[in-house]
Amino acid sequence: MSTLRLEVVTPERKVYEEDVSMVVVKGVAGELGILPHHIPLVTPLKIAPIKAKKGNSEEFIAVHGGFMEVRKDKVVILAEAAELGSDIDVSRAQQAKERAEQRLAAKADEVDHKRAELALQRAVTRIQTSGQQ
Amino acid sequence: MAKGMREIKRRIKSTQNTKQITKAMEMVAASKLRRAQNAALASRPYSDKLKEVVASIATGGGSVKHPMLQSREIKRSAYLVISSDRGQAGGLNSNLLKKLVETIKSKHKSNDEFTLFVIGRKGYDYLKRRGLPIQQEVIGVPDSPAFADIKSIASAAVKGFENGEYDELFVVYNRFINAISQIPTIKQMLPMDAAEFSKKEGPAADYEYEPSPEEVLNVLLPKYAETLVFSSLLENKASEFGARMTAMGNATKNATKMIEQYTLHYNRARQAAITQEIAEIVGGANALS
C-alpha cells in the first residue's frame, strides 16, 4: 500500500514526521481527505484536530491554525502551534475552555470576544484530540 | 608594612571572587549559546517552507498583488527593536541602540514620523529615557523563546503596516556571525521585496490553491512576516549569549592578570618586611655589643 509522508512543523520544532496512508484535515473551505498522489495543493487550516491514518490505527494531532502544503507523496503542515494527543494536558485545556466560555458569556467588547472565541476553539481542539487518542 | 600586605591580600581575594563569577557566567553563556543556535536551526524548516510557498504563489500566480509586496510612498516608518533583557554582554545593546538612534535622527525630523516596537528591557529603558514614541513593548522574553512570546507584538507590527499606520517596517537586531562578532543590523521587513522571491528559480510545483491564491497569500504573508520577526529574535538571542561569553571571557582574563600583579606586589611587600625585620635585629644586636 502506498503511503505519504506527513510532517507537522512549528516555528520551534518538528512535531511529527511519519509515513501515513491518509490525512484528514479541516481547511478553511471545508474538510479534506488527502490520499497519496493527491495533486499539489495549498490551503489555510482551521483550528481543529487533524487525523492521520496509519494502516488500521489512527493518530490525532491538535493543529492551531496554520496551513497545509500537499505534494505528490508528501504533506507538510505549518502551524504556529501543534501538539500530539499524548502531550496534551486535558485538565488545563478544560480549565481554559471554561474560562473562555465565561468570557464569552460576559459579552465584553469585540476584541475580547474574538480572542475568547479563538481560545475556546483551541481548548475544544485540545480536548477532542486527547479524547480520541 | 604589615598593614599594606593585608590590604593587598584582601584585594587578591576579592579579585579571585570576581574571576570565579565571570568564569561561571562565561560557561553559562556558552551552554546557552549552543542552545540558542540549535533553536535557530530548528526554526529554519518552518520559515524556509513558508518562503517557498509564498514565492511559488508570488511568481507563479502572475497577477497576484498584495499590499505587503508593494512599496508605497513613505510618510511614516516603524522600527521593531530586538534587544536583550540583561546587560553584561559587552557593547551589544548599546551599539545596536546607538545605530538605531543615529538612523532615526538622520531620517526623521520629528517624533511623529516614526514609531517603535521594542522587545527587551535594555532597549525599552534606553529609548524611553530619550522620550521616543514606543507603541508596544515586550519585556522578559525567556532564554529559549517560544513563538507565543512575541506573537502579539509581531502581529501588531504587521497589522499596523496593513492598516496603513506606517509605510515601512524595519527590524533592528544583532546579526549573529560567530561568538566574537555580532553586527547591529537594521533590516527592512515590510513591504517585502518581491524580487527576492522571484530570484530563486527552484522546481516550483504547480499548486492548486484553496479557496484562491489571493486568499492563501492573505493568510500566508502576515504569518511569514511574523516568522521573520521570530527568527530575528532567535538570532539576537544567539548574539546576546555570544557577546556575553566573549565579554566574560575577557573579564576572566583581566582578573587573572590583576591577580598576578597583586601577587607580585604582595611578595615584594613581604620581602621588604622581612628585610626590615632583619635589619632591625642586626641593628639591635650591634647596639648591645
Automatic annotation (TrEMBL), chain A:
This is ATP synthase epsilon chain. InterPro entries: ATP_F1_dsu/esu_C_sf, ATP_synth_F1_dsu/esu, ATP_synth_F1_dsu/esu_N, ATP_synth_F1_esu_C, ATPsynth_dsu/esu_N. Keywords: ATP synthesis, Cell membrane, CF(1), Coiled coil, Hydrogen ion transport, Ion transport, Membrane, Transport. Belongs to the ATPase epsilon chain family. The lineage of its organism: Bacteria, Bacillati, Bacillota, Bacilli, Bacillales. The gene is atpC. One of its GO terms (cellular component) is proton-transporting ATP synthase complex. It comes from Cohnella lubricantis. Residues 87-131 form the ATP synthase epsilon subunit C-terminal domain. CDD domains: F1-ATPase_delta (cd12152). Produces ATP from ADP in the presence of a proton gradient across the membrane. It is a peripheral membrane protein. Residues 4-82 form the ATP synthase F1 complex delta/epsilon subunit N-terminal domain. F-type ATPases have 2 components, CF(1) - the catalytic core - and CF(0) - the membrane proton channel. CF(1) has five subunits: alpha(3), beta(3), gamma(1), delta(1), epsilon(1). CF(0) has three main subunits: a, b and c. The keyword Membrane applies. One of its GO terms (molecular function) is ATP binding. Residues 90-117 form a coiled coil. It is found in: Cell membrane. Its main location: membrane.
From TrEMBL, chain B:
It is a peripheral membrane protein. It is found in: Cell membrane; Membrane. Gene3D superfamilies: 3.40.1380.10, ATP synthase, gamma subunit, helix hairpin domain. One of its GO terms (cellular component) is proton-transporting ATP synthase complex. GO terms for biological process: proton motive force-driven plasma membrane ATP synthesis. Coiled coil: none annotated. One of its GO terms (molecular function) is ATP binding. PROSITE patterns: ATPASE_GAMMA. Belongs to the ATPase gamma chain family. This is ATP synthase gamma chain.
